[in-house]
Amino acid sequence: MSSFELAALFLTAVAIGAWLNARTARLPHGVAMLFVGVAGALGILGVKAMRPDLAAGLVAAIGQVDFAKTVLGYMLAFLLFAGAMQVDLAELRRRRLSVWTLATVGVVASTVIVGVGLWLAARALGLNLPLPWALVFGALVSPTDPIAVLATVKRGHLSKGLQVILQGEALFNDGVGIVVFTALLAFATGVAPTPLQALGRVFVESAGGLAVGSIGGWVVLRAMRSIDDFVAEVSLTLALAMGVYAGAQALHLSGPIAAVGAGLLIGDRRRHKSSSDATEVYLRSFWTLVDEILNALLFLLLGLELVVLPLELRLAGLCAAAVVLVLATRFAVVLPWGYYLHLRHEERGANLILAWGGLHGALCLALALSVPAGPHRPMILAAAYAVAAFSVAAQGLTFGPLTRALHRRGQPG
User: Fold this and answer.
1) Which residues neighbour 252 within 8 Å (Cβ) at sequence distance 6 or greater?
2) I need a labelling partner for 181 at 20 to 30 A (CA). Which of 117, 130, 221, 316 fits?
3) CB–CB of 403/157 below 8 Å?
4) Average pLDDT estimate for 352-357
5) Distance separating alpha carbons of residues 103 and 169, to the nearest angstrom
6) What's the CA gap between 374 and 359, in Å, rounded?
């Protein structure tokens, strides 16, 4: 199938799935699309078992999609830019200690705990997963997925402060996490940087990416303030999102953090608005639509990947251990920090919300798929898919009801 035919097929599935969800279950869009994708994948696998000839075309079509490249190379720039536009920059500045600590120290601590834990679990299950490769897995699941988190936060009853911490952490820790993942992958494959080099790379790529995004955002803001034309302004922001992401990557800096930096500045322009209300509505509506459609498409693809991933039944124990380990580590990393910041005094159940709201999704699987072929790749892929599917389905489905229940309990009787 051509790229156009593939896009038409997947977008049609997204449209039908969204319509059915709106008419019936009314689940969060990401969760609904994951279920649609998994149901489609199971249906294809069922047909494949009975009539391989009939299923071959669909399996081949899904196999054509380079999921890692689609996420990391194309979609992430738009999704992070759109997500950053929703964040209150003034509130983010007030919460910068929480956000940066969770996005840096939290990612590193989680990488170590999850990596060592999975290594021990694999040994107990009789599986050969060396510690360096277990740490690679720890790195790819430690960043909370900005795509899943931002989609879920919209449905929760959260204070502005807690919402900004979840959003900011998710937007920044993926850039840090990708750099940590790259360094550990180099170590596991024998091209090992020293710890000091790895730390320097994290700092340079993160700070450099933020600088590229901020400079690009400032230039575009100046251009937008000189006009009031929604077509030109939307075009400028579209070019900005793509340009800073691609430019930072070309300079070996963090493209994700560059997109976040640019999106934060554009989103904050409403405080110094020079455009008309109509232009502002067009601009925000455009990026909301981009965000929703790409989110839905991404979660659909996440479900459909079940068809082409080399998942083995013997790895079920490792997958279960990975899910429990990642969730327990999230609580172990977040709860002490939440108590240190006295978040429990700000909102009822704030620490629980912060821990349960750390979702993992498409980004986790995209990083796993970028691991080179080898004897350890099937274990990493299976565990990553299990973590992503559980997180989006279980945590994504229950996050809204959890925050509403805590909100009701916190109200005076």
Assistant:
1) 205
2) 316
3) yes
4) 86
5) 5
6) 28
